[in-house]
User: What shape does this take?
Amino acid sequence: MFRFLIRRLLLAIPVLIGVATLVFSLIHLIPGDPVQAMLGDSAPPQDITALRERLGLNRPLYAQYVSFMKGAVTGDLGTSIRTNQKVVTAIGERMPATIELALASMVVAVLIAIPLGIVAAVWAGTSVDHAATTLALVGISMPTFWLGPLLAIIFSVSLGWLPVSGRGTLAHLVLPAITLGAPLSAVLARITRASVIEELRELYVLAARARGVSPAGAVLKHAFRNSLIPIVTVLGLQFGAVLTGAVITETIFAWPGVGRLLIQSIGARDYPAVQGCILLIAITYVSVNLLVDVAYGFLDPRIRYE
Amino acid sequence: MLWVGASIVTVAALAALVGPLVTPFDPANQQLALRLDGPSWTHLFGLDELGRDILARVLAGARISFLVGITVVSVSAVAGTLLGAVAGYFGGVLDDVISRAVDVLLAFPGLLLAIALVAVLGPSLGNVLFALTIIGWVGYARLVRGQVLRAREFEYVQAARALGAGALRVLWRHVIPTAVPTVVVQAALGMAGAIISEAALSFLGLGVQPPTPSWGTMLNGGRAHLLDAPHLTLFPGLAIALLVLGFNFVGDGLRDLADPKRG
Assistant: This one.
């Protein structure tokens, strides 16, 4: 297990270096002078020179790269041009909101997906299954940037039950969590269905039924429990989709998270903050994938020896 | 499911092709006196914040969605298939370079890299196409590489090699065709992905810029009028959801056909 863990960690290092390199190069992809792009065409030359020096863009490319990578390792992602705040501090202040939203959306997804997937699997091939499968496909097809406003129109504007934007109470969390969780629930429901169908074909389920275990007991206590590994894995791997979805959901509901900070920074051409947000989201994604991989290897010994 | 999906896609494609020619309203024509008017017999989907006919704009927006979907999917599929096939067949340094590039690009969740690229390159349709293709080809490359690794061990492939066929001929005639069904399924699902991604970028203000009608841009414009004119949000969103659902049905149906065990 220890060797497997070390191997997975070592494999993640070149990926992280590649991610950081790509994020570093973003600022150099800006057409023309990046500093001019940040400050606008009418900026006085002394301001342009000052910002160029502050961002270190007057130094040779390799020196910029080394200092960016050093900063990425030590947690120094530079200073925001818009707010003059350390990028790491700005992200740190907003991270709890994004994590809260991501976790809540995953809870919503699990609560919808597991029953839907189990029902579809138990009645596989029937009209119940077709209805559940179609519902899941509708969920995947419905864009969050449409579902969010739609839910806001119904539950905030028409019924007045829930606040339309902001963060603070549990009521504020409901609509963003459903918006972000719905597509994830659709993906999870499909995996749950496929996984439970596979387990239901196994002999141990038949044996359990022969021992007098009720049909519901055979499904829930035996088949479903054994189908949990792929479900948990997909839940972990979908964390990336949740992070990207959070960018859109936070924008719709004015949720003060990292995603909204990213969009605000893009709007203000605050490229150090943009780079910081992108790098942090990507590193979080790689780390979660790594954790899922390691957890999977821990749960299923066959993975370790492949 | 396949037929339902194919019907939705066909109707949408016809609407995109013919719709803008037969609708009596110009999607750019403004009737400020009638702004935000709800659906009526004259304007079936109502009018937007500048008094433009929403049905005409939804039909014109369909052209953008198809343009993005077809361009991104065809370029990504061709590039990804070629790179994946080369990596899988030749192995060695080529495989290492391509596979590491795939690993790095896949380390960015979903749309994040596209958002980052469009943020620095500037919002425009061309940059959206570029950004979505950059993140699009990796899925095909990974898929095809896996298929090719299996296919190069097939007996008929080894027989072709033993008969003296060159590497390119073996790849083109014998190996790549084995990956085609998988690529077609991925392409159908990729159409859905590209359409939704373009709409997402435009919704965030990073894609197609006004006054060009794109479904995402229309939804973005509707955000300010959720309270007084929800029809601005309703119809473009419905169009996206239906078309994406159509392509997902097609992709799912094709996958079941390619792999009957799944069905």
Q: What stands out?
A: Chain A touches chain B through 51 residues (CB under 8 Å).
